[in-house]
Design brief:
By secondary structure, this protein is mainly alpha-helical. The protein has one domain. Helix content is about 75%, strand content about 0%. The two termini are about 35 Å apart.
Length: about 230
């Protein structure tokens, strides 16, 4: 067993697994020489990650229902596109939550399969959003804005940075890759929410329907970038 607070296998400190040299052999801190103090600390951080994921899932459900529901009612493609990405993030959140509850955040074959599925769903959004934008444009559908859609966007702008920071921090401290990837998705959602909010506000006050298409294009660019980075990992 180890002396002090540093693991002799992965050299992680008692309050962080971020610098683990061999996380695949020390994923759960119960199969190597980590001290009971470190194991207890890690389980506590994973539990906090689970709480954060539950909160994230609740908010993502609000985003999906609010964005897609209002978007369909008002023919706002930007809201529908944002809600569709939120749906993928909701599925991803369930995957990460199951991963955290199953093995303290370590790697697993189930987690790898789920990660591949999430990536495929993310890529599938690109043609769906693109075809929807093309149909809306050529069909002459004029998108509208509403206070409810703006409220959803404002909520995302306020909440997503908090989720992003907490997920990233816990993911790094526990060396939990799925949670770190989920943190990146939260950051992307925040940036997309900014684009959505800007488009909705301009359309609401100045009645410029084309801004909805601009916001949709920006969201599509974020989804494309996120898809490329996901498959590079």
């Amino acid at each position: 067993m180890q002396d002090g607070s540093t693991c002799t296998i992965c050299e992680c400190e008692a309050e962080s697994c971020e610098n683990c040299l061999n996380p695949s052999e020390c994923a759960s801190c119960v199969s190597c020489c980590c001290s009971p103090t470190h194991i207890s600390w890690r389980l506590g951080r994973i539990h906090l990650g689970i709480v954060v994921e539950y909160f994230s899932l609740g908010w993502m459900a609000v985003e999906v229902i609010g964005s897609i529901g209002v978007g369909l009612f008002l023919s706002s493609l930007a809201l529908i596109a944002f809600g569709s990405d939120s749906l993928v993030e909701l599925i991803s959140g369930f995957i990460v939550l199951s991963h955290l509850k199953g093995n303290s955040g370590g790697s697993s074959e189930r987690g790898e399969r789920a990660e591949k599925l999430t990536k495929l769903l993310l890529v599938a959004l690109i043609p769906v959003i693109s075809l929807g934008a093309a149909y809306s444009y050529f069909a002459g559908i004029r998108p509208e804005s509403s206070p409810l859609g703006i409220a959803v966007a404002i909520g995302a702008v306020l909440i997503m940075p908090i989720l992003w920071i907490e997920k990233r921090k816990i993911g790094r401290e526990t060396n939990c890759v799925p949670l770190s990837i989920d943190a990146i998705e939260s950051a992307t959602c925040f940036l997309m929410a900014l684009a959505l909010l800007g488009g909705l506000l301009v359309n609401y006050f100045f009645k410029l329907g084309w801004v909805d298409y601009l916001a949709t294009a920006i969201i599509l660019a974020f989804v494309g970038k996120e898809s490329v980075e996901a498959f590079r990992e």
